[in-house]
């Protein structure tokens, strides 16, 4: 590691050790780089042991990347014990060790948003998705604000608030009966624990002596409290962030936290970085001119030495199919012309639902692609089946997991028995698993119906005993054989999907085997790891030559040589709901994040008409396009502008052909 790879303010940030530091700077200015280099500096020159340092990133993927980058700066011995994780996995880690203080067992289950939504929908007695989502969001916001159900019920002004507050209470009761936590609990409960147990606080403050936090602008109140508690009066931390990239207000992120830092830590030093090392001057100018339309919190300037670069291409398309086709054609033509790799391209969009049509167009041209931030491997039904068993083995009180496991494949327990069990468990405030063992319930059902249920419980107990002793992969495979999962798949599906599903299951088994061996993790550890992976993104993807597809939210912090930002229309970006709710500034920041992912070229596309709920609607290009200085823009496809692909169309066909033949092309000359 050499500090010559940093500019002067970056070096200052690394040398500032004896108090809190905030690096506040625009996109691509090397904030994340400051964090990695600072970790190396802390270990090598400041005498802080790796095990006393924690770096916090926004996603698991970012954590992996950071660890990789640190691995390039230092050797493995030096970084042993270093924590690089998200707030959620740090919280989970703390809770695993401290659960009994909170009346939980260490093997608590972690429910994903889907399971949590299901509980809420059961409480509300509705399956209306939108209603459930609204209530769920409100509960989550309250939880992140440390409000308890009684408090919010007392303060409720509208009928909706009151319904949410009562649902919140019932929801919390259900979670504790299941020994389960949701994602919000993973931050909220550690904070409560640190507040109420001084000895626990002291232990963690001594353990994590230096904190580094990336993407600080997207922390919420809970996360901020966690930082404040952990760093204590010493305030030994470095936070880096960009107020213009705050895009998680809808999940409770609070930009005020940037100001709070100044208030709560009067000694806070602020360092600004102004040189951007990522993008050409034109891309940067486009980003700056769009964001200039938002009111400024902090004054920032960004400049780049990477040359003026190509104008931003703005492409008008007829409709969404046409857009997908044109984007793919232009991508191929560009690849052919510049001799780049597929992995140099990213297609970014506002919402996951936009991806499907681009996937289809890419597949038609046999272009390899990788999705992130979309439906992940762990969301596939067959994978969720196996995970349900894993969750149940870790924590038999996890009712949603029990119901799924007991019914896939069916274990001979009838619906009537399950209903009686549910009613009994509800009355007694017990989990289903615990209720099944009580005499009061057992008297209510016939022995012939009880026996399969008890068999199932014995199987789970037996597996639980072995789960702490045996390798996770092999044990899972054996369990699948015991329950006859493969045969059940083939019985209930057409052969083709069954085969694909079984292959996915085997991939999971292999992953468990590998993880278990590498990191010495048991099936129980891995169950909790998976819950965290599913929160924001897919699993580790190895670096392959594929076009990256991602939502704007999931692209935060990343960079790609060539970016296609699609669906840049009123109603999509900015999103209609945000326009209606006066959240246009957040949408503009999202646009800013999108533009600043691009290193060398940026193409924005929009449609003239789009299908919505089965009807064709004429739509307008996004206001953000007109906010870009028009001297940096080149239009295609609209009257009087350049044709869509003409000049390169022939080449595109050729490129297409070469892609189909799998011919290897060379690297981009300009890299
Ligand atoms: P974002 O706001 O998007 O998260 P960031 O501020 O974290 O961006 P980085 O990702 O750290 O920026 O850096 C952007 C790019 O610039 C990276 O490729 C990084 O390696 C490079 N970079 C950062 N600082 C320097 C430097 N001093 N010299 C050369 N390259 C640099
Ligand atoms: Mg970054």
From TrEMBL:
This is ATP-dependent DNA helicase Rep. GO terms for cellular component: cytosol. ATP binds at residues 25-32, 278. The keyword Isomerase applies. InterPro entries: DExx_box_DNA_helicase_dom_sf (IPR013986), DNA_helicase_UvrD-like_C (IPR014017), DNA_helicase_UvrD/REP (IPR000212), Helicase_Rep (IPR005752), P-loop_NTPase (IPR027417), UvrD-like_ATP-bd (IPR014016). Its EC number is 5.6.2.4. It comes from Paludibacterium purpuratum. HAMAP family: Helicase_Rep. Residues 4-280 form the UvrD-like helicase ATP-binding domain. Homodimer. It catalyses: ATP + H2O = ADP + phosphate + H(+); Couples ATP hydrolysis with the unwinding of duplex DNA by translocating in the 3'-5' direction. The gene is rep. Keywords: ATP-binding, DNA replication, DNA-binding, Helicase, Hydrolase, Isomerase, Nucleotide-binding. It comes from the Bacteria. PROSITE patterns: UVRD_HELICASE_ATP_BIND (PS51198), UVRD_HELICASE_CTER (PS51217). SUPFAM superfamilies: P-loop containing nucleoside triphosphate hydrolases (SSF52540). Belongs to the helicase family. UvrD subfamily. Rep helicase is a single-stranded DNA-dependent ATPase involved in DNA replication; it can initiate unwinding at a nick in the DNA. It binds to the single-stranded DNA and acts in a progressive fashion along the DNA in the 3' to 5' direction. Transmembrane segments: none annotated. GO terms for molecular function: 3'-5' DNA helicase activity; ATP binding; ATP hydrolysis activity; single-stranded DNA binding. The keyword Protein biosynthesis does not apply. GO terms for biological process: DNA replication; recombinational repair. Residues 281-557 form the UvrD-like helicase C-terminal domain.
């Amino acid at each position: 590691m050499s500090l010559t790879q940093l500019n002067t303010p970056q070096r200052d940030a690394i040398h500032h050790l004896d108090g809190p530091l905030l690096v506040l700077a625009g996109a691509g200015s090397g904030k994340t780089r400051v964090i990695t280099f600072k970790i190396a500096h802390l270990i090598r020159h400041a005498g802080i042991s790796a095990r006393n340092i924690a770096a916090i990133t926004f996603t698991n993927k970012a954590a992996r990347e950071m660890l990789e980058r640190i691995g390039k700066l230092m050797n493995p011995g030096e970084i042993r014990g270093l924590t690089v994780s998200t707030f959620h996995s740090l919280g989970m880690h703390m809770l695993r060790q401290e659960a009994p203080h909170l009346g939980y067992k260490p093997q608590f289950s972690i429910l994903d948003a889907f399971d949590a939504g299901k509980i809420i929908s059961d409480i509300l007695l509705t399956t209306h998705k939108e209603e459930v989502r609204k209530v769920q969001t409100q509960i989550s916001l309250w939880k992140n604000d440390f409000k308890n159900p009684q408090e919010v019920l007392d303060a409720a002004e509208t009928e909706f608030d009151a319904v949410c507050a009562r649902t919140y209470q019932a929801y919390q009761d259900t979670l504790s009966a299941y020994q389960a936590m949701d994602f919000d609990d993973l931050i909220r409960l550690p904070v409560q624990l640190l507040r109420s147990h001084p000895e626990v606080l002291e232990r963690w403050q001594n353990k994590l002596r230096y904190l580094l936090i990336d993407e600080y602008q997207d922390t919420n109140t809970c996360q901020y409290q966690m930082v404040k508690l952990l760093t204590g009066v010493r305030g030994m931390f470095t936070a880096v962030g960009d107020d213009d990239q705050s895009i998680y207000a809808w999940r409770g992120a609070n930009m005020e936290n940037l100001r709070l830092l100044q208030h709560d830590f009067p000694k806070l030093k602020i360092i600004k970085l102004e040189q951007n090392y990522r993008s050409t001057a034109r891309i940067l100018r486009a980003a700056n001119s769009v964001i200039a339309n938002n009111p400024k919190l902090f004054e920032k300037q960004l400049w780049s030495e990477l040359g003026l670069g190509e104008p931003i291409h703005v492409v008008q398309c007829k409709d969404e199919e046409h857009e997908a086709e044109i984007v793919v054609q232009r991508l191929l033509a560009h690849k052919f012309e510049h001799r780049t790799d597929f992995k140099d391209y990213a297609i970014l969009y506002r919402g996951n639902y936009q991806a499907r049509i681009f996937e289809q167009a890419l597949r038609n041209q046999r272009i390899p692609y990788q999705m992130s931030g979309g439906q992940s491997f762990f969301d596939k039904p067959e994978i969720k089946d196996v995970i349900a068993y894993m969750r149940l083995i870790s924590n038999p009180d996890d009712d949603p997991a029990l119901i799924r496991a007991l019914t896939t494949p069916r274990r001979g327990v009838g619906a009537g028995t399950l209903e009686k069990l549910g009613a009994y468990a509800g009355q007694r405030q017990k989990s289903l698993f615990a209720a099944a063992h009580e005499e009061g319930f057992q008297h209510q059902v016939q022995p012939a119906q009880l026996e399969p249920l008890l068999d199932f419980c014995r199987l789970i107990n037996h597996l639980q005993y072995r789960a702490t002793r045996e390798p996770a992969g092999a044990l899972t495979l054996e369990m699948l054989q015991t329950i006859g999962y493969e045969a059940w798949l083939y019985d209930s599906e057409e052969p083709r999907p069954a085969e694909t599903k079984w292959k996915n299951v085997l991939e999971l088994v292999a992953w468990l085997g590998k993880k278990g061996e590498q990191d010495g993790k048991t099936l129980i550890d891995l169950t909790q790891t998976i819950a965290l992976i599913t929160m924001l993104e897919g699993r580790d993807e190895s670096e392959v030559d594929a076009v990256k597809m991602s939502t704007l939210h999931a692209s935060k912090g990343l960079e790609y040589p060539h970016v296609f930002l699609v669906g840049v229309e009123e109603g999509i970006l900015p999103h209609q709901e945000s326009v209606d709710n006066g959240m246009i500034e957040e949408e503009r920041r999202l646009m800013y994040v999108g533009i600043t992912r691009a290193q060398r070229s940026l193409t924005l596309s929009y449609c003239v008409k789009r299908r919505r709920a089965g009807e064709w609607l004429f739509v307008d290009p996004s206001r953000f396009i007109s906010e870009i200085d028009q001297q940096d823009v080149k239009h295609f496809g609209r009257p009087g502008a350049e044709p869509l692909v003409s000049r390169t169309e022939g080449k595109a066909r050729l490129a297409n052909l070469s892609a189909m033949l799998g011919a290897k092309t060379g690297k981009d000359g300009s890299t």
